[in-house]
Amino acid sequence: MEIKEIFDTMVYGPAPESAAPAVDYLESHNRTFDLFINGEWTKPSSKKYMDSHNPANKELLAKFAEADEKDVDKAVKAAKEALPKWAALGGFERAKSLYAIARQIQKHSRLFAVLETLDNGKPIRETRDIDIPIVVRHFYHHAGWAKLMETELRDYKEVGVIGQIIPWNFPLMMLAWKVAPALAMGNTVVLKPAEYTSLTALLFAEICEKVGLPKGVFNIVTGKGTVAGTALVNHKDVNKVAFTGSTNVGKIIRREIAGSGKKISLELGGKSPFIVFEDADLDSAIEGIVDAIWFNQGQVCCAGSRLLVQESIAEKFYAKLKERMGKLRVGNPMDKAIDMGAIVDETQFKTIDKLVKLGISEGCEIYQANNAVPKNGFYYPPTLFTDVSTSATIAQEEIFGPVLVAMTFRSHNEAVALANNSRYGLAASIWTENINLALDVAPKVKAGAVWINCTNQFDASAGFGGYRESGFGREGGREGLYEYTKPKIEDEFSSKPIIQKAVKSKTGKKSKSILEDIDRTSKLYIGGKQTRPDGGYSLNVLNAFGEYIGEVSEGNRKDIRNAVEAAHAEKSWAGMTGHARAQVLYYIAENLAIRSEEFAERIVEMTNQSLESAEEEVEQSIERIYTYAAFADKYDGQAHSTVQRMVTLAMPEAVGVMGIVCPDENPLLGFISTVIPAIAMGNNVVVIPSEKHPFSATDFYQILETSDVPGGTVNIVTGHKDELAKEMAKHYNIDGVWYFGTKEGCKDVEFLAADSMKRTWLNFGKYRNWLDNAQGEGEEFLRHATEIKNIWIPYGA
Q: Is the model's pLDDT at 294 over the cut of 80?
């Protein structure tokens, strides 16, 4: 083709990137790679190796070691042995190592980019211009956090040995997102890369060697997820598991570690909405869709795979979109003029094709442009579905390919309802020229990241992670550092409950109740009303010496259901400002102070502790309410300093409806210390009070009723603590559970919560001294009562 013809047609000619340096690198290793354990290249115990193919042409790239349980054990032992010295090295020394890693990746950036494209199939433009710069940014950014840890996170310490499992869609980027903060905070790492795409992780290990990273600090075990991954998850000396991958595998992992006390963060699937309002810049929105769903062939967990278009512009928008689809170039990913490369492997290709055929069979209308698609490789054309019902499989299931599903809406509220009609909640993209509309919709969409008039924005300074079945935890930003640290105060927790000493009456008579002459029935408290239990049963309540002091309603599964419905029905509390909620909390404290003598005597009646210690507990409870009233309008977010021209708002949002299982010790203070921080942040709660000493909670009904707390904000169900906790863990409409009880109870809650992927905060058989402010209150409670949503707003002309 002559130059004149090119100018006339504007056809892109090929611009191939040379793979020669990467091929030379592979040949220098005889195309075979071992495990990286304790700073040395180690042959696998199994003596087996797996093949890595180039998905663009199906050619063999290399072989890498297939680790088994023995290899994983070696790697974990090496990491455990290296941990004390690495943690004690100090932030400055760790910062120097991370900085050196960042510099070395920059020096070899093109080799990393080419190797990633050969291994994964994504276009070289993406690996060169997006993936590698983000990788470098993460190591630079977290080098800074390593240096600042001793001042900015002085109350936190390293978690320990971290087991990390990463996916194949962003092999090196996911490594950086996990490894950089883990090492910065003083942890050591055992990494299990994806089966299909391990090559850049192995090159990264060589970088670690080159910069002199201490042996055992970073280890790689390649191989099958079902063998090496499972062994890593279940190893007794792994203190935290960080996993990015499918929701189904995330659920399996969570069940496997249930009750072990291991920390866990999960970044899972998504079905992210891409919302286009009628006043949007349509051409910009079209380019946004290209980036949202056809970036990396749609193999992106946060891909904007659900297009929601306002009905008034739908026809025009679809026409523009189809025209743009026809201009997308699909082909050799090593060609810099290519828009879409190859699907990662044959299995994923078949999964995409199967779901597309299912969409057709369900009556959805398909459009595929007549793009030239190479035959020798796993290439799939950009695909659009319209006339899709909300119940269609392709509207609900993650396809993880270049397939866009489109629906229309009329009103703004309908757009939000459609956006939230998913079991996922990873990301969302909103397109409108009305900033007021954008900032009205963004907080209403259940998603961890919301991009306004942009999409797929990532930075090391801004957390990324989801809600619902998209997992929990954040990667990046200050919020991401908490995933790789733990409060130092946890070292002071007791292995036994801390209970106030019971004092036997000198007369030999049981303590006199202030209501002894009244036959009083303590009911459940649901929706602002005292209600009888569904089952019609009551439980005897005994004091510390086994003496009968009264009865309490025995709640069951239906009572939990009713309480959850009441909590969801109450909308006003979450909509109140922090200032307004603070006033209500101060009012609660005031009303409790008025009745402090009565509450102290009730504590004495239940626990037989001295009146003096009971009065101290009541006073401490009042002060704790004041603490969270003070925080209600002061626990706020940040504007993150990202490298993009963005105002990136990190906003703490209420988790939603929370289930709280109170500790048995300190019946009033334990109730206050768990319930009040949750509602201070705008959550509605379903509370199971102390099973042994429930009357402090049932007496609290009247405090709530006289303190302007909306009915349904706090719902109290008494009964057998662990039985009711299981029901809350199973309930799909409870967004998070706090459990303070036995180790066995923690295991049950964590295991059952995996189905709905709800957040849990568990004590794993360790007990706080609730009278100690360092253990019983603070920002840790507020962090667990909130989710961080990052809203990205571009600025400038």
A: yes
With CA atoms as reference, report the closest residue to 232 among 87, 86, 70, 82.
70
Q: Which CATH architecture has domain 273-465?
A: 3-Layer(aba) Sandwich (3.40)
Number of H helices, E strands in the chain: 29, 32
Q: Is the pLDDT reported for residue 4 higher than 90?
A: no
Residue 197 token pair: 């795409």
Closest CA to 631 of 697, 574, 567, 680: 680
CA dist 657 and 297 (Å) reads: 37
Q: Which residue has the tokens 């072989």?
A: 63
Catalytic residue from among 17, 126, 267, 787: 267
pLDDT band, residue 507 (cuts 50/70/90): very low
DSSP 760: E
Shortest CA distance to 450 belongs to which of 274, 642, 652? 274
Q: Quick one: pLDDT band at residue 515, thresholds 50, 70, 90?
A: very low
C-alpha angle 112-149-86 in degrees, rounded to nearest 5: 65
pLDDT above 70 as % of the chain: 96
Q: How far apart are CA 51 and CA 388, in angstroms?
A: 40
Kindly write down the DSSP assignment for every residue of 214-228, as one continuous string: PTTSEEE--S-IIII
d(C-alpha 292, C-alpha 285), whole Å = 10
> Sorting pLDDT into bands at 50, 70 and 90, what band is 497?
confident
405 touches 306 (CB < 8 A): yes
CATH of 513-647+655-782, one of 3.40.50.280, 3.20.20.140, 3.40.640.10, 3.40.605.10: 3.40.605.10
What SS3 class is residue 410? coil
Q: How confident is the model at residue 3, as a pLDDT?
A: 66
User: Is the sign of the CA dihedral 25, 26, 30, 32 positive or negative?
Assistant: positive
Domain chopping of the chain, boundaries:
19-52+60-268+480-485, 273-465, 513-647+655-782
Q: Are the C-beta atoms of 627 and 777 separated by less than 8 Å? A: yes
User: Which tens digits make up the pLDDT trace of 117-149?
Assistant: 999 999 999 999 999 999 999 999 999 999 999
The mean of the pLDDT values for the chain is 94
Contact 184, 152 (CB under 8 A): no
The token duo for 790 is 């990052």
Alpha-carbon separation of residue 317 from 145, 386, 479 (angstroms): 45, 12, 38
Q: What is the pTM for the complete model shown?
A: 0.93
E strand intervals along 453-581: 471-472, 485-487, 524-526, 529-531, 538-542, 548-553
Residue 123 contacts residue 339 (beta carbons within 8 Å) = yes
- Look at residue 611 and tell me whether its pLDDT is greater than 50: yes
**Which residue, 154, 733, 132, 143, is CA-closest to 488?**
154
For the sheet containing 32-33, what is the strand order? 32-33, 60-65, 49-53
Q: What's 706's DSSP letter?
A: T
Range 19-52+60-268+480-485 has CATH code 3.30.200.20: no
DSSP string, 113-179: HHHHHHHH---HHHIIIIIHHHHHHHHHHHHHHHHHHHHHTTTEEE--EEEEE--SSSHHHHHHHHH
Is 414 noted as a catalytic residue in this protein? Answer: no
Cα 336 from chain centroid?
35
Kind of pairing, strands 485-487 and 524-526? unpaired
- Residues 222-232: what's their mean pLDDT? 96
Q: Are 334 and 16 in contact (CB under 8 A)?
A: yes
Fold equal for 19-52+60-268+480-485 and 513-647+655-782: yes
pLDDT value, residue 661: 98
Q: What is the pLDDT of residue 13?
A: 75
Is residue 40 scored above 50 in pLDDT? yes
